[in-house]
Design goal:
single chain; alpha+beta; minor pseudopilin epsh fold; four-stranded antiparallel sheet; 8 strands; 41% helix
Length: 155
């Protein structure tokens, strides 16, 4: 507060009415820099949240596969393209996707089914496409081994 009073006192002594061009340019520059940093930061945070959600889906698929090996019973995870969610056969919990959207046009499967030894069933392997704000992602389950791969789409 003391600095503000000193500046006001200096202005009164000089009888200045207004601001200089230099002060205006510096103020606009500072505001522009702060705005730019906020925009970039929000974009980075959004991409990070998409990647976290993608890892969560991959973890769910891997947990379903591992559970089929441990219990020696077939297990599956089903993607609902209409409601943008997925359900695994472990606990039947419906998990909503918040940042990513399931892309039915490009995806060739709705359910990943794993046999008792962890390999995908005949129709259990395939590819799911997900769309984010600026990126597209692909989750693929390989036919024989059941390995889950997630990556950014090349398209």
């Amino acid at each position: 507060m003391d600095l503000l009073r000193i500046l006001q006192q200096l202005r009164k002594n000089k009888k200045v009415k207004g601001i200089t061009l230099v002060e205006l340019i510096i103020t606009i520059g500072i505001i522009s820099l702060i705005s730019y940093l906020l925009i970039v930061k929000s974009f980075v945070i959004s991409n990070r949240l998409e990647e976290v959600e993608l890892k969560q889906i991959v973890t769910s698929i891997n947990n379903t596969r591992n559970h089929s090996i441990v219990t020696r019973k077939p297990q599956s995870i089903t993607f609902n393209f209409t409601n943008n969610n997925y359900t695994n056969s472990l606990d039947q919990e419906v998990i909503e996707l918040k940042k990513l959207e399931l892309n039915k046009r490009k995806s060739n499967i709705e359910t990943f089914t794993f046999t008792k030894n962890g390999s995908p069933s005949f129709k259990g392997s395939g590819t799911i496409f997900l769309s984010g704000e600026s990126e597209e992602y692909v989750i693929a389950v390989t036919p024989v081994t059941g390995k889950v791969n997630a990556r950014k789409s090349d398209d």
